[in-house]
Structures are given as C-alpha cells and as structure tokens.
Amino acid sequence: MAKVGYLMRSVHYEGAESDIEWMKDYGCCEIVEEKPEHEKLRPLWNKVLGNLHKGDELVVPKLSNVLQGTRQLAFFLEFCRMKVIRIISIHDKIDSGNELFPETKTSDILLTIALLPVEVNANRKSAHNKRQLKSKIKVLTSAAHNKAERAKLVVNMYKSGHTIDDIWKTSGFKSRSSIFRILNAAGVDLNRGHTKGPIGPRKNREESKEE
Fold first, then answer.
1. Positions of the region Disordered (predicted)?
2. Which of 62, 133, 185, 201 could be stapled to 91 by a disulfide with Cβ–Cβ 3.0 to 4.6 Å?
3. pTM of the entire predicted model
C-alpha cells in the first residue's frame, strides 16, 4: 500500500511548500506536482490515478485544487470506491479512512462538496487575472536595454557640454538626426549651435520659416 501525494501548482497556489512538507511528514513515497501550464488537461493527475492500486492512499491539498467540478468529483469518488483508495484532503480535513481529522463532521464534508464549484471558479478567475497581468508587463530585452543606455549616454554627454559631433561618434549612431531625436524625446533644451530650444514637429518648423 503506497502513499501518493498530488498537487496542482496553479498560479494562485501559495501554500504549496508547506503542503509538500505535510505530505512528506505523512510518509508519501511519491509527490507529483502538476505544472501551471498543464492546468487544463492535467496529464500527471490522470497518470497518478492510473498508477494507483487497491489499498493505496492519495493525499491532496484540497479537493478544489485537483478537481475541476462536481462531475469530476463524482467520477473521482466512484473511482476511489471501486479501487478501495483512501482519500486524504489536507485543508478540507477529510480522511476517508476515518483516522485523521476526527473533528470533521458530516456537515463539514457536505459544505466542502457544496462549495467546490465556487472555489474552482474562484481559482480559475484568479489564474486568468494573473495571466492577464503578466501579459501586460513588458520585459526589457537586451536590445531595448542597450538602446536605453545609448539614449542616456547621448543626453548626459550633451548636458556635459560635448559637441554633437563628439556625441555622434561616441554613440555610434549612423546620423546626427538620431542625436537630435533622442535629445528632443528627452525634453532637452538645445542651448548651443544653430538650434535653440526643443525641436518641434516638422510642420511647425516649416511654418515658422515661411513666416
């Protein structure tokens, strides 16, 4: 009779490490962790169920962590009944062997089943929101970092009194116009040479010449 632990490493699951320690202390010979990117299909979960034998014990952190609805719950319970699998759910405080969690009442188990769809939907919503937030975060690539550093160099050199030619040669840009573009984007007032003040739109400059 083997003790097997399983948990779904979803993006909102923050107590994974403590649950793994609980499983280890309980004596689980194997602890399977499903990756977040496999949350929908859960191939390892199906593999765990397929490898269970009569009399084995399955330890999970919470039913809502491993099941995706009441339909799966019905299948899971029937599967465990037929294979005589002992179910232990840590945070639901459920032990089908009636040894752990003696304080758990029938009403507590019924409440856990009733709240399963609510908890599953909450987990899905939390995972969706975190994925959206992550997609909005722009990661600065090495190329973008180099570009930002070169722009910073141009601004600092100009403010330090270097000529446009010196800045052009040092920065490595192909044309002087790139230097002026960066200075203008940084809001730097051009205070020497033929150009004074920030560079405005091309249309405005041409209109001022005509006047």
1. 191-211
2. 62
3. 0.61
